[in-house]
Design a protein that fits this description.
With 515 residues, the chain is mainly α. The chain has 18 helices and six strands. InterPro entries: HPr-like_sf.
Length: 515
């Protein structure tokens, strides 16, 4: 075979490409002439077509076909078939495996929607196969002379499953393994902001969402995380006595698996949309016309794949929380309140993050009031009770001060307030945050005592954020012992700040809080 430098001789190049394309062209002819959709949408045909198209695309890209006027359209057809066979294969897998899990109350609707999507994919595939045969004929490519079409037909799968008769692996402390799996699912769910916020985004035009919010890179990253979670299950839980202990484990695995496959298909379609359809891709519509419109492919991506990924994700969250509530060991922890302004933004956020990390129900208890420790806004309310208690304790302390009973101070409230404040500072009852501190200029109210006047002045300074009141007040956390352990570490480290509100570095075991 003779070659020009960097430019293949056309006839020789056609013969060379035909080695890689003839099988795909034969599969294309088979698909075009087949009346039964199942002969296209079956794993044998899709798997072989995808493998051949993938290899052919690699060869065409090596020879710069996508930038050649003669071969660009053929290369686009090949890429389209590669994508559609891959997505169809994944969707068929979803269709066959999802019924074995009791995943969603609306599983029947999901299966109906899956069938509709498969119908659209089959139609687009047929169009792509027709297009590639036209371009192949124009480039003088031929089908393979011999191909075994019997191995492409749809095969009815037998009912049932093989018996599990191998010995199960034993797991030490299976309850811990189960809770850790459920916690891992909840942690990943909390990171899946793209899916959590999907419903808000679907109100706008889908074309505006790609690539600014949803793009191949972001969805692929999320896809890989769910794949890792599925692998975690298969490595440490599959075929163990833990599976026999709780059937909910398989359901959690099922949710993670289906979300993974839905994201896997989404990644392929978004890649295809960004690279081959989106106006920014710069494709010449005269050379190549996609077999599916941009509106239709966006609808498939957002209304089916990402929408159901979001729904299955949410259903798995509920299931994981139920599992944790069954096995989490309950405990009680008593810790001091944060020294700087109590449960303000930073301590409340860190406490809530720890609780959310484990997915357990944990409550903060102060007096006869109970608060949800997973919600920062709920924890902010604790400060109302803390500050009220601080003021009560301070009022009692003021009553016992020397200055309050000094006749001279009672004659001059301004002098008395200064003396009271100095005594409180000396007894370490007050923290002064202001470098340029001055007592408030308040008017005395009729029949007001010096103690009452001092309490009012200090309440004013407290509200202004210039001072705080020291307290040995404690709160209780009740719930999962794993959470309580980390909350204790957090409390021992000042809830992430010193007594003046400056940020401090937390220990390594709480490093997940910075993610």
């Amino acid at each position: 075979m003779s070659w020009k430098k960097n430019v293949p001789v056309e006839e020789d190049f056609n013969d060379f490409i035909n080695h890689f394309s003839c099988s795909l062209l034969s599969y294309a002819r088979y698909a075009i002439t087949s009346a039964d959709r199942r002969n296209i949408l079956n794993t044998l045909f899709l798997g072989k077509s995808h493998a051949v198209a993938s290899r052919l695309e690699e060869v065409l890209d090596y020879y710069n076909a996508k930038n050649n006027s003669k071969w660009a359209a053929f290369r686009e057809n090949t890429s389209t078939i590669k994508t559609l066979t891959d997505v169809s294969y994944i969707t068929l897998h979803l269709r066959s495996t999802s019924p074995q899990y009791k995943l969603l109350s609306g599983i029947d609707l999901f299966l109906k929607e899956t069938d509709k999507v498969l119908e659209k994919l089959a139609k687009s595939l047929k169009t792509s196969f027709k297009d590639i045969t036209k371009n192949a004929s124009r480039n003088e490519l031929k089908e393979c002379s011999v191909i075994d079409k019997k191995n492409l037909h749809y095969i009815e799968f037998p009912e049932g499953r093989l018996e599990s008769d191998l010995k199960r692996r034993e797991v030490t402390n299976p309850e811990k393994v189960i809770v850790n799996l459920a916690t891992s699912y909840l942690n990943l769910a909390s990171e899946s902001v793209l899916l959590i916020d999907l419903e808000k985004q679907r109100t706008g035009k889908y074309s505006e969402l790609i690539p600014n919010i949803y793009n191949e890179s972001r969805i692929r990253l999320l896809e890989n995380k769910f794949h890792n979670l599925q692998s975690l299950y298969d490595t440490y839980i599959s075929n163990t006595d833990s599976e026999d202990m709780d059937q909910d484990l398989l359901l959690i695995r099922g949710h993670a698996s289906i979300v993974f496959h839905l994201l896997e298909a989404s990644t392929s379609l978004i890649h295809y949309y960004e690279r081959h359809i989106m106006s920014l891709s710069g494709k010449d519509t005269k050379i190549y016309k996609p077999p599916v419109s941009d509106k239709e492919i966006l609808g498939i991506i957002f209304d089916y794949y990402l929408n159901y990924a979001s729904q299955f994700l949410s259903a798995g969250v509920k299931l994981s929380r139920q599992v944790i509530s069954k096995y989490a060991e309950e405990g009680d922890l008593q810790v001091s309140v944060p020294s700087y302004r109590g449960f303000h933004v930073r301590p409340s956020t860190l406490v809530a993050k720890i609780v959310q990390h484990y997915g357990s129900k944990v409550s903060l208890v102060l007096g006869d009031e109970t608060y949800d420790a997973s919600k920062p806004m709920d924890l902010f309310r604790v400060n109302e009770k803390i500050n009220a208690e601080k003021r009560r304790n301070l009022a009692f302390s003021i009553c016992n001060l020397h200055s309050v009973h000094d006749p001279e101070c009672n004659e001059n409230f301004e002098k008395g307030l200064k003396e009271i404040f100095h005594e409180l500072l000396e007894e370490n009852k007050i923290i002064n945050y202001s470098t340029e501190f001055s007592l408030p200029d308040l008017s005395q109210i009729n029949e007001e005592t010096l103690g009452e006047f001092a309490n009012r002045a200090i309440a004013y300074l407290l509200a202004q954020g210039k001072i705080d009141l020291r307290t040995d007040l404690k709160v209780s956390f009740k719930g999962d012992k794993r959470v309580l352990h980390d909350l204790q570490v957090l409390a021992e480290n000042g809830y992430g700040e010193d007594c003046y509100g400056n940020n401090i570095v937390l220990p390594e075991e709480l490093s997940y809080l910075s993610r």
